[in-house]
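Researcher: Structure for this, please.
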Amino acid sequence: MPQVPQPVTDDSIAVRQLSHYQFSWVAGEPGQPGTYTLQLVLDQGAWEEVLTLDPDDADNLQDLLTAQGTVHYDVRRRVLMFGVKQPGS
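Model: Predicted structure, token format:
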């Protein structure tokens, strides 16, 4: 049986499942564009991440998040993974 390094902590979990998300828009200085953010709530609140987005990325991510039932996030690489399927499906 392989040895698993102990203890397993929140920081040692690399890939988490997206539970909830929230887009926000933060106003910029007068005459300057605002900033979009995307807050990710992962594993029912065990981890949270906030991403800063440009308007096109925010629009595309909203479409992807709406269309997918299951989304995972790699915390270390900062990668959202869509379309997770079981082998053979």
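Researcher: Any notable elements?
Model: The first helix runs from residue 55 to 67. The chain has a mean pLDDT of 90.
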